[in-house]
Amino acid sequence: MIPRRAHSFRLRTGRLWPSVAVAGLLTAICLALPTRNATGDAWYYAACSRWGQELWQPHHLLYNAIGWAWLRLVGASGPAPAGELALTWLQMLNALAAGASLLVLGRLLWRAGAPTAAIPAWLLLVGSSFGMLRFATENETYSQPVLLALLASLFWARALYAGAGRRRWLVLAGLLAALACLVHQLMVWWWLGLLLGLRPWRGRPALGEALAYALPALLVPLAYALAAPGGGAGGVVRFALHDYLTGGARVELGGKALLFTAISLVRTAGQVHGNMLPLLLRWPLLLGSIALGSLGLAVYGMLGWRLASREKSAADQPARAVRRTHTLIGGLHLAFAMQATGNAEFMVMLPALAAVALAGGAGLAWPPRRVAALGTALLSWNLAFGLVPAHLLEYSGTGPALRARVLGQPGAWFLLRDPNVLRNQLHYFTGRPTAAPRIVGLARQDSAAFRHWLAGRLAAGDTVYTDALGATWPLTGRSWPRATWPPGCWPASRRGALIR
Length: 500
What we know:
single chain, 500 residues, two-stranded antiparallel sheet, disordered N terminus
């Protein structure tokens, strides 16, 4: 345990404003650059929060409900005109959550033994990772549970430094970790890592502290029991494990999982995508110079670290426990992401966990200026190839023109490669989950049955549109570049129409 006098002195003299400045800068960037290319899930969550529908989702029980409460607070729920800004307000909430996460991470890094002067550089590095920036500019379900989990870790670490009253801090940490799990089930691995970090097998005092931390987790089954439709133990289990029981989430291991895990790890740090070549062709001088500058800064930053021996002392013991425990949490989350075929969404917390594990020392000497250089490189790269293009350009044609045609021709059929984005957009704008029942997805269709169905529609004289012929018109900056919809959708008939 750190002597109380030294501990208090260090708290008073620590300079917080550089960390606040870094967190404020990154938050302002995310607030200014919300994505214009929201995912189908993002539109769905926004629709549910805007209209107060389907607020309790099994995999992220409280996310839509939090969004609904936020929209009610800012006056952006319900019908137009205020309600049409719901998606933007929800993206803003995630940007604020990401900024708050960096402030909490700064205090946690100090608890992990990081020098005060190095903390702003580490915050810049973590906050500039594409995993953090991506979900801070999108209405996805990851920024808010990461904030709650970091708060849980901060109070957990505070308990390690406390004399009397340790269990009070652990109860608070357990409550926040349980809330993180209720916002997204993924955070159960963070909760478990903090529990194991208390080493409950090391005697009755450690077991008592572990029980104090674990007790608030009873809120999780209680919340699911209240939210599950139908009731009964079996119904609660089916509701809580809905994504696994229905095949929405699967366990996949093997060479493919390892390959995608490696790719997703790279993408968690910096944006790598198939749209990079069209972007370079669109803005060659600007993006080319940014890319070269970012690579140069990254090389300078990565060559700056070295291994260094550190003397262990009793005063450093809590910091070592913080670093060790968050290394374990990172391993648990990485293993879970790997079994999910290297899902990049499940790696959003890894940069923060890596910073806690490394910034405090653990034999690593990395000058703050080198860390800041690498963070600046990531920020430049991810702004150039990630946030700015996603804010200025539309990557597909699913926009106002297509929505207007679907609503204006309720009798037409729309065969789309990715129908969920359009379906959820229509749900968002109309408040009706089935606003356009004649939208059909082309993926995973049985070929023979689909051809028979299509022949029947054309024989009946139905109008059929599709985006499966011709180019997808990426990076146009507008919804559908062609004003006309020429006839002749399918070679076998002249009754259709073509979306290009």
